[in-house]
Amino acid sequence: MIVKFLLLTLFGIAMAHVEGVVVVYLRKALGILEPESNKELLGEINKHYINIERTREAATIVMLVTLSLLVGETLLEKLVIFLWTFAIWDLFYYASLYVLIKWPPNLTTVDVLFLIPRPWIAPVYIPIGISLATIILIIVFYIFRFL
Questions:
Q1: What is the pTM of this model?
Q2: What is the DSSP letter of 113?
Q3: Interatomic CA distance for residues 33 and 92, integer angstroms
């Protein structure tokens, strides 16, 4: 079980870095050079590109669901694997962006977390906190499950 979760962690970190690199390139291509809140950018970016971004987000969820369906043995394990990998991916997505472009400049920076079904906007400490809590709860769940 530990090896499975270590491999899922590695997958989540790699996936987060790929997405972080994509965002760096998107920011450069769209002329977004200053580390700023992404909330204001929603009104400035062409709706066509927002819709393309929605498809990228949907593809990310499809990849995580597919992974959990392939790796998990029971319905509960599939759910836990999805939540674990999502939390690792989300946490390391922000870590990757910070390493690459020093964004977000702080944890209170407002970000567009998702565009599906409509924009979710919050300071980055919200998804980071939820991801950390998810990881901790899953670790605690497995510790007590195997005692």
A1: 0.91
A2: E
A3: 21
